[in-house]
Amino acid sequence: MPGPHVVIVGSDGKLSAELRAVFDSLPRWDPILHVVEEARQAGDTVRSRRPQIALVQMNGQASALRVLAEEIQSASPETQLVALFDPNSFPQDVPESAVLIEALRSGVSDFLRRPVSRNDVEQLFDRLGSSRPKAATSHGRVCSFISNKGGVGKSTLAVNTAAGLAQKYPGQVLLIDASLQMGVCAAMLDLNPTTTLIDAVRERDRLDETLIRQLATPHDCGLDLLAAPADAIEGSEVDDEVVSRILALSRRAYEYVVVDTFPMFDPVVIAVLDLSDASFVVLDNVVPTVLGTSKLLKVIEGLRYPAEKFSVVLNRFLRAPGHPRVEDVENRLQWEITSVIPYDKKLLLSANTGQPYVLHAGRWSGTGKAMKRFVQDAEAAAKLESLSDGQSTSDEESISQSEQAGFQAMTSPPESG
User: What's this model's pTM, rounded to 2 decimal places?
Assistant: First the structure.
């Protein structure tokens, strides 16, 4: 289960190191950290990342803290603002309690005393109910497709998954083509979009759920497409921050968001994975691809993503001499293959004609059954992640907890050791 997203706001490098050391000792939560050195950048980061917690370094300037708190609340109302304070930094003629009360009035939900201790952070997470990250404020789910190389049918799976979901949830499925270098989803759907991801990027200052829907191109099957940029030059305008914001807004506007990606593990793909409820690693049973996928999975593990968030899909599977068997692929990857889609020329034909295969698969088609079963599995995987999220408290409970936590911090001495 993915840990809570935490944004750290502060230019003190010692603070970041201090917090990272504490968080590394908390495998129960395993938070995903984002560091913002400049307070003026905090609003954009919080708006894009939608973190559960924003940790802000107090500098004794109540007005600056108030402005920052208002900006964070406006950008992401669900984010809890926690102030980090060092009593020794307060003016000697001003009581500590007065400073903390002023911070509470500014919108701070809780406090951590420096040096930050493991016990204090554990209690903070317990108070804020952050042992599970909250999904975005709606129940939208994000499914992403990644691979280590092109040509394995990743985009075909993404398009067919979106189309299959749209049959069940018409008007509630968005397909985002985040393959910034050479997106093909529009061609696979026989669409000629007049707006793309670039329009969302260039309208980032007024981007909201309504504009996301306006920029998407509808397809007859019931899905909407937010197409890839026209070329790689336009694609270079898209960064991880804006992709995070687009995904956060999209999952508020749609029941399901399906994301295709470019086969390159870069900050944009990482941002997609951060906000995905379920991610599918796609490969075929060709030895070089299997070896590359093995390295990709090790990178995923190294980034401390939870294994249950990922499923490995063996696509375009060929039973032929020289091609590894399913068990051979599993042994090489040290990862279970959760879905196997057999090779079928009709899948290639459907991609070439812009007609998603899942919409026209015959009742007795083995590949059609496998594809439809995969769509059901994708739906179930995304639901499993979202429904496992902890329940948020009511506004009244949150206010009560915040007040109590604030005054506990004022009266509690720092933990020794």
Answer: 0.67
